[in-house]
From TrEMBL:
GO terms for cellular component: plasma membrane. The chain crosses the membrane at residues 303-329, 381-401, 465-490, 510-534, 557-578, 677-700, 728-752, 831-852. It is a multi-pass membrane protein. One of its GO terms (biological process) is calcium activated phosphatidylcholine scrambling. The keyword Glycoprotein applies. Belongs to the anoctamin family. This is Anoctamin. Residues 66-289 form the Anoctamin dimerisation domain. Keywords: Cell membrane, Glycoprotein, Membrane, Transmembrane, Transmembrane helix. One of its GO terms (molecular function) is chloride channel activity.
Length: 919
């Protein structure tokens, strides 16, 4: 049977309704089903009676986390609609779902899981199935998942905090220790069911934390079979949710977020997280990362740890960026070249050439006075220093994050969380129809595709991604055409002296500024629309590729989404920074895009301020839009849901039904949170030379982002499925790649986008002899030297202004060319080649210095702190010692004193062989 046939059968079985006579659990006689086809989990044999879930009435305990007996803890909740409560004429269409559900629940009970169903208080059609994991089942799957559990309290003294002498001040910035006490640290080892004696078990009921129990429950739910048809075994809660068999599946919150529970056995961790972390009043406090990790799992914990660390590091960058901005603001009035632009005797007498054909007019340079002053705020020597500083900052951020991450890996027992410990995704296992030899273990294993099939899948995926990237580039070209098409209209309107209503704004609104702002707004709208479309495409491609593990799936999706977002968000910025105004030639021979649209020119001071405007609009608009999505949408959805399902106030709603009213967690979890922050990281680093306030905006946004995300997952969403994670995954190399690229982009922005290098060349070379008339180095006369002269009689017929005045014989344009009448008129002059050489030298020198500094810092700062290395060694040593001692105790208990006769006893030999095998 081909792969396509299998996939077709799979889709048919998922969608057909009561076709054929095959019952659930009944295996076709004609097809021999291989046991190793899927994970070897229990399935119901043919003819076996299906055990149904036990029903129980709600016991009117709204905050109870247990079955009705008050002993068995609820580890997971399944929700479905009872088909028997539906209308009679529609009831038959739901019988297939009912049989699948009954088969699935019978499979769970056969695997040792205990179930109890309770009818909804609000809607009698809804049924809530409570899932409990008994001790034996927990021990079995803790070993399967290699969960590390305590073996002995940590006897190593912790390093004293450098802030301990200021504890009277710092204590106000940490969570209340009376509410959230510091947990005891333990040395841990992977759990083994047969060696319970050497684990630190005080109470079996709390040995496995609720998040561990939920994680193991979900592992079983994801692999329990629900149907066998022909030679296809179907399994997993994910497909049942997609097919409507169940409406929801989630672990329980332990209490209401704003009310402390009085139920016995409730730790009230959700309430503590809200009070000390998610509540707006706690915005200034450090995050309780250990409690976050304990309640939500390591994956959520590592995200908030990274976000908090990134935000703390941003404070330094924001302080320096704000200082650079203040320096530029204070010196804008003293800038010599800006004064010349605004001077009526200098800038007022300089007539600039039209910047578009026919409909644009001549204009005076001093009309850009206000924009030149604004440009001084961002285009100054402080910006150069700040760009170099940010290149060093990003290296320090990444290196210190690695160290902090290593500490968290040890504290959270993820040091040895290897890929082979991560189980395959159920979607991957369901398609395994081919066999291959594992290159590592040498054991035959099932895979869903051949090597050729994988190449086809990857090729289709890459081709689709490339198509969408080209689509983005096409949209950028369309926006460029828009800019070119409307620029002449703005020029005609804003230069028209008869337009009285805009008179107060003429000093501030220039054609370039109006075009830049409107194009930026349109670009932002296009970006958001393409994001929505591509998101679904990227998920479809990744699903089609069938990655083996969830980590592989997320890494593959991460790369696709980031490539798309990189082009989507940054392409317009790259155009303004490195393309606009670079290929315009001179007024007598302009360059045209598509043979029709005359290429854009920059302001006389360059395109830097336009790049700043683009960054501010996209960064600000993105932050506002994301916060609206993250705060308002979940809140409104929950409000509408509660309104539609409102009940009388006297009714008591159980804990599981309260959670059902919350928003479901996205399948991709934290993916979009990471993506949002990494895109922001790119704005902060890639183009920071043009916008020193980018770190300030990022810092303010992140202070809100941390609390918004905390508030959202604590109050508006169902409890997140706890997952293991060692680090931030594929985002780490992406951040490193952005950091490397940032050095080059900032160096090129200063060299090619700003006007700093031409000003420095003029100051040191062309203001004095032999090129200049001044006796000392000065910036006086720079504006005149940076604007070339053009004879208006040299306009081509298609470019000559329609309102040409015979009084204007020459005009100026931004370039370094010989004047008319010169033997080499309109060719680049010596000033131009000096500037080009200086720009290239600047890029090479700055890049080499910064890259060398980054390399030295990376080498000098170890990724793993020395104290963590020592603790890891100590833990491994203790694990070996305790294992050895435990085996000796077992042998001692089982054996009498060894004598010549007992040495030959088979039981003695067996015990001694076991001891030798362990070492």
């Amino acid at each position: 049977m081909s792969e396509n046939d299998i996939f077709e059968m799979d889709s048919v079985c998922d969608t057909e309704e009561l076709e054929g006579d095959t019952e659930l659990g009944m295996i076709d006689e004609e097809v021999v089903y291989p046991e190793e086809f899927l994970p070897t989990y229990h399935s119901i044999k043919e003819g076996t009676r299906i055990i149904k879930t036990q029903l129980a009435e709600f016991n009117n305990k709204p905050d109870s986390l247990f079955f009705n007996d008050g002993v068995r803890r609820i580890d997971f909740i399944l929700v479905y609609e009872d088909e028997d409560k539906k209308e009679y004429e529609k009831r038959h269409t739901f019988q297939r779902r009912k049989r699948r559900r009954e088969y699935f629940e019978a499979s769970l009970m056969k695997m040792g899981v205990e179930l109890e169903a309770t009818q909804s208080v609000i809607d009698e059609k809804l049924m809530f199935v409570k899932v409990h994991m008994p001790w034996e089942v927990l021990c079995t799957y803790a070993e399967v998942l290699h969960i590390k559990l305590p073996i002995q309290p940590n006897d190593l003294s912790s390093r004293p905090s450098p802030w301990r002498h200021f504890s009277c001040i710092t204590k106000h910035f940490y969570p209340n220790e009376e509410l959230i006490s510091k947990e005891t640290e333990y040395f841990t080892a992977p759990f083994e069911k047969d060696r319970l004696d050497y684990f630190y078990i005080k109470d079996k009921d709390v040995f496995f934390t609720p998040s561990m129990r939920s994680r193991m429950a979900y592992y079983i739910l994801s692999r329990a079979p629900y149907e066998i048809r022909g030679n296809i075994k179907k399994f997993g809660i994910t497909k049942l949710l997609d097919g409507g068999v169940y409406k929801a599946a989630y672990p329980l919150h332990d209490c209401r977020f704003n009310v402390r529970s009085t139920e016995e056995g409730c730790p009230n961790e959700r309430f503590l997280l809200y009070e000390e972390w998610a509540h707006p009043k706690s915005f200034y406090k450090m995050q309780p990362l250990d409690l976050i990790r304990k309640y939500y799992g390591e994956k959520i914990g590592i995200y908030f740890a990274w976000l908090g660390f990134y935000t703390i590091m941003l404070t330094m960058a924001a302080a320096v960026g704000l200082g650079c901005f203040i320096y530029g603001y204070k010196t804008q009035e003293t800038s010599t070249w800006s004064k010349e632009v605004c001077d009526p005797e200098i800038g007022g007498n300089i007539v600039m050439c039209p910047q578009c054909d026919r409909f644009c007019n001549y204009w005076r340079l001093n009309t850009t006075c206000e924009s030149s002053k604004k440009l001084c705020i961002f285009d100054n020597y402080g910006t150069l220093v700040f760009a170099v500083f940010m290149s060093i900052w990003v290296t320090l951020f990444l290196e210190f994050w690695k160290r902090y991450q290593a500490e968290l890996e040890y504290e959270w027992d993820t040091v040895e969380f290897l890929e082979q410990e991560e189980p395959p995704r159920p979607e991957y296992e369901a398609k395994c129809i081919y066999e291959r030899k594992n290159p590592v273990t040498g054991v035959k294993e099932k895979v869903p595709y051949t090597a050729c099939g994988r190449c086809v899948r990857v090729s289709i995926g890459m081709g689709t991604v490339l198509f969408w990237i080209l689509l983005i580039l096409a949209s950028i070209v369309a926006i460029i055409v828009y800019r070119l098409a409307v620029f002449f209209a703005f020029s005609k309107k804003l230069r028209n002296q008869d337009l009285k209503q805009l008179e107060p704004l003429k000093e501030y609104v220039t054609p370039q500024m109006a075009t830049a702002v409107t194009a930026s707004l349109i670009s932002f709208v296009v970006i958001m629309i393409l994001n929505i479309l591509y998101e679904r495409v990227a998920i479809w491609i990744t699903d089609f590729e069938l990655p083996r593990t969830k980590t592989d799936y997320e890494n593959s999706l991460t790369l696709k989404m980031f490539l798309f977002q990189f082009v989507n968000y940054y392409s317009s910025c790259f155009y303004i920074a490195f393309a606009k105004g670079k290929a315009v030639s001179y007024p007598g021979q302009p360059v045209y895009l598509l043979g029709k649209y005359r290429n854009e020119e920059c302001d006389p001071g360059g395109c830097l301020f336009e790049l700043t405007t683009q960054l501010a609009i996209i960064m600000g608009g993105k932050a506002i839009w994301n916060n609206i999505q993250e705060v308002l949408l979940p809140w409104l959805k929950n409000l509408i849901f509660r309104y539609c399902t409102r009940v009388a106030s006297e009714k008591v709603i159980p804990r599981w039904e309260q959670d059902y009213q919350l928003q479901p967690v996205s399948k991709l979890g934290l993916f979009y949170e990471y993506l949002e922050m990494v895109i922001q990281f790119g704005f902060v680093t890639l183009f920071v030379a043009s916008f020193p306030l980018a770190p300030v905006l990022a810092l303010v946004n992140n202070l809100f982002e941390i609390r918004v995300d905390a508030w959202k997952i604590t109050t508006q969403f169902r409890r997140v499925m706890p997952e293991k994670a060692q680090h931030i995954g594929a985002w780490q190399p992406i951040l490193q790649g952005v950091a490397i690229l940032a050095v080059a982009t900032n160096a090129m922005i200063i060299a090619f986008t700003s006007d700093m290098i031409p000003r420095l060349v003029y100051y040191w070379s062309f203001s004095v002899y032999p090129y200049g008339d001044h006796s000392n180095n000065t910036m006086e006369g720079y504006i005149d030297s940076s604007l070339s002269i053009f004879n208006t009689s040299d306009f081509s017929k298609s470019s000559v202004p329609a309102t040409e005045s015979g009084l204007i014989t020459t005009c100026r344009y931004r370039d370094f060319r010989y004047p008319p009448g010169h033997p080499r008129q309109y060719e680049h002059n010596v000033y131009y080649w000096h500037v080009v050489a200086a720009k290239m030298a600047f890029i090479i020198v700055v890049e080499h210095i910064v890259y060398l500094t980054k390399f030295i810092l990376s080498y000098m700062i170890p990724d793993v702190p020395y104290a963590v290395k020592e603790q890891i060694k100590r833990e491994k040593y203790l694990t070996q010692v305790i294992l050895h001692e435990t085996n000796l105790k077992l042998v001692t208990k089982r054996l009498k004193p060894v004598d010549e006769e007992s040495v030959n006893d088979p039981e003695v030999k067996l015990a001694m062989e076991e001891l030798e095998l362990d070492f």
